[in-house]
Amino acid sequence: MLTNQPLKSPKKSEIASKNNHQQTLKGRTLPLSAPTLAEDQPPLTLSRTVATIQRRDDTSNRLAGEPLKEWVTLQRATSQPPPFAQVPSIVPEVLRSPAVNARAYTVGHQVVQPSGNHLQMKLAVGAAGDVYEQEADRVMERGVLHRSAQPAPIKQTTPPNSPAGPLSVRLGGARGCGSGPDFAHFDFPSISAASTAKLAAWAASHPPLPGSLLPRGPFRSSITNGECEIEMSGVLTMLAGIAGLSAFSRFVAGTGGTAIHGPGSTLGSMALASGSFLRTVAWVQANIEAQLATQASGGVLNPSALAVTPPATFFDFSDGWPLKAVIGGTQGEELFATGFTGSIPLRSYSIDLRFIICDDFGVDESDLYAPGLFAFWVLQHERSPTRYVPFINQLELPVTVRGTF
């Protein structure tokens, strides 16, 4: 039977016993079993713990007068080999070396080079503790150490077609702020007869000045700056609260410049959640995915090569009264990519976008349609060269878009 005991070097007593037994069998021929390894058979594992020589006397089946035969069999490994039953990776190297005989692994088995897919074995009895066995012991220790060592970690690398990291790429933009009739100041523009009639009706609606019984009349010059300011600030505060009052104060002071509204501001946070802006984001996302699909067919994703001009975004009262009152219709938009990751095999991506939407906080003739706007127009275009200066409201809205292409 096969025993799974680790093979140890024979002690002196065992060597003496073997030598005595060899003397009693001197002159006899030992028929040996030499199994071969074929493709349809389980592999023969050369291991000190797998195969042992089993010796038995065939006294019951031998013919009369036939000398006693000693049988040596080499058994195959079981379907579930014990630990280290697999051949160490260094064993084939040892078997090919003329300096080391494989008998050290098979206790007297001299292995010849395999022919084709068969492993042929020739059994021979070698001296215990010879140089071959000592060399095999050293090789076995090296093999076990190599086997028990932890494998080196596999380095994960980013494929060249899946760039990742921060970016600062302008994808597109349109229109612009800081120019046009709504940004003009103290310019006394010519207006149509219809607009003149609107302003006349607005002026006539005011009550008489304090201490006077005379009606105000159709002349807008009769409306004081203070009256215009009260009217304008009242409407903005009612519709937009603090955001409206802040815009009014900047306008009256003549500060000009650009007021930035980030995602944490009143107007910025409202814009991020507005339906009008979300529709703009959806349009941009569809265009990005179409371009990434085209790039993927070429084997490389390049966010710097994307070209997307966002559509104009106009805020209505459904998006929030402050947005409509302070910004409303816009004058310009730009789109930047600030981060990107993508995978062609997974057909997925994530891109960090920054939308910049600007609006001139100013009015022109087309805005003469509601209370508060008439006073706004008069102050901006006809009252002071240093005060009532229009400025730019700029929304900076970061958005991360993820999807497939």
Report what the structure shows.
- Helix 6 (225-253) crosses helix 10.
- Residues 1-85, 99-119 and 144-162 have low confidence and may be disordered.
- The chain has helices spanning 12-24, 91-95, 103-106, 131-148, 193-204, 225-253, 266-273, 275-297, 321-327, 373-382, and strands at 53-57, 70-74, 109-111, 121-123, 164-175, 258-261, 332-343, 348-361, 391-404.
- The chain contains ten helices and nine strands.
- The strands form three sheets. The protein has a five-stranded mixed beta sheet.
- With 405 residues, it is of the alpha+beta class.
Concise synopsis of the structure shown:
With 405 residues, the protein is of the alpha+beta class. Helix content is 32%, strand content 18%.
- Tell me about the largest β-sheet: 5 strands, mixed
Element-level helix/strand string = HEEHHEEHEHHEHHHEEHE
Strand residues, percent: 15-25%
User: How many DSSP helices?
Assistant: 10
What general outline do the C-alpha atoms trace? Answer: rod-shaped
- The span between the termini is 64 Å
Q: Biggest sheet: strands side by side, in what order?
A: 5-7-8-9-6
Count of beta strands: 9
Give the fraction of residues assigned to helices.
25-40%
Sheet/helix structural class: alpha+beta
Mean pLDDT: 76
Compute the CA-based radius of gyration. Answer: 47 Å
What low-confidence regions span 5 or more consecutive residues with pLDDT below 50? 1-85, 99-119, 144-162
